């Protein structure tokens, strides 16, 4: 009886954990990107114009690193900033 109860509880815990792991998966790379609002597009254009030093129309790694904290906050508030945690070791 005790073995059956323990086995049932263990199975429930494992199943619950796998359900949460399924929810944590990132969106696939081929998933459509969300459409930006007019205000978000304007803010993005301002940021790119300010920090795009090589004038290629996009921000590379070094240009993104140069974005000020104030502008990062503006982007986050406008819904176009990314909150990233520390890099994962591969």
Short description:
The chain has four helices and no strands. With 90 residues, the protein is mainly alpha-helical.
Walk me through the topology.
Elements: H1 2-23, H2 38-51, H3 61-65, H4 69-78
Helix pairs in contact: 2-4
Describe the structure.
- Helix content is 57%, strand content 0%.
- It has 90 residues and is mainly alpha-helical.
- The protein has a domain at 36-81.
- α2 runs antiparallel to α4 (69-78).
- The longest helix has 22 residues, at 2-23.
- The chain is elongated, with a radius of gyration of 22 Å.
Gyration radius over CA = 22 Å
End-to-end Cα distance, whole Å, is: 44 Å
**Structure annotation, total helices:** 4
State the low-pLDDT regions, or none: none
Specify the helix fraction band. Answer: 55-70%
Structural class: mainly alpha
- What shape does the CA trace take? elongated
The total of beta strands comes to 0
- Mean pLDDT over the full residue set: 80
Can you summarize the main beta sheet?
none
Kindly list the characteristics that best describe this protein.
single chain; 90 residues; mainly alpha; 57% helix; elongated
């Amino acid at each position: 009886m005790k073995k059956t109860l323990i086995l049932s509880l263990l199975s429930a815990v494992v199943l619950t954990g796998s359900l949460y792991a399924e929810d944590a998966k990132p969106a696939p790379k081929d998933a459509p990107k969300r459409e930006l609002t007019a205000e978000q597009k304007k803010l993005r254009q301002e940021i790119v114009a300010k920090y795009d030093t090589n004038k290629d129309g996009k921000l590379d790694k070094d240009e993104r690193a140069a974005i000020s904290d104030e502008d990062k906050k503006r982007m986050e508030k406008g819904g176009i900033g990314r909150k990233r945690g520390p890099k994962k070791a591969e």
